[in-house]
Automatic annotation (TrEMBL):
Signal peptide: none annotated. The keyword Oxidoreductase applies. Keywords: Oxidoreductase. This is peptide-methionine (S)-S-oxide reductase. The lineage of its organism: Bacteria, Bacillati, Bacillota, Bacilli, Bacillales. It comes from Ectobacillus ponti.
Length: 167
């Protein structure tokens, strides 16, 4: 259960937002199972993922019996999170707005070798608005287009994932 703190939004807008999130189906996006709205409290219900957050696995509060992530697992996690975010943005026109390792949850995963080792938690206070609404609400932010070279794709490298460039 995720309690949304300091979220001031009208019921109609919140319901519309939950409807939009309810339409998202992707392996790397954790679905909202239920929600509660009142003036003073807003709650979201997600599946329980016993492996916890990527932050905990990276920064030492892993719990007993859990080993740190090796570099290959970190790469798979980063790519999986990126796939989930890309799906939200490109297919559903949703912007997360609060991407951080504590919002990435690790799934107990039999097929981690396939590179799909995590789910992405969808909400932190005040995040996840439509792309159009986000551009309208942020003064000074220009809408940009992302271009791809036709036929040019490469497998991401460690340098790509760590922010050093494009491979």
């Amino acid at each position: 259960v995720k309690r949304l703190k300091d979220v001031a939004v009208a019921r109609r807008e919140f319901d519309a937002h939950m409807d939009a999130l309810g339409k998202v189906e992707h392996r790397n996006v954790l679905p909202v199972r239920a929600y509660y709205f009142s003036k003073d409290e807003k709650l979201l219900v997600f599946d329980y993922l016993p492996n916890g957050s990527l932050s905990a696995m990276l920064h030492g509060s892993r719990g007993s019996g859990k080993t740190p992530l090796d570099w290959d697992a970190r790469m798979r996690s980063a790519l999986s999170a990126a796939r989930g975010l890309a799906h939200l943005h490109m297919v559903h026109s949703l912007v997360h707005g609060n991407v951080k390792s504590s919002n990435v949850l690790l799934r107990p995963d039999a097929d981690a070798a396939a590179g799909e080792g995590l789910e992405l938690a969808q909400f932190a206070a005040g995040c996840f608005w439509s792309v159009e609404l986000t551009y309208q609400r942020l003064p000074g932010v220009a809408r940009t287009e992302v271009g791809y070279s036709q036929g040019h794709r490469h497998e991401p490298t460690y340098r790509d994932v760590c922010g050093g460039g494009t491979g």
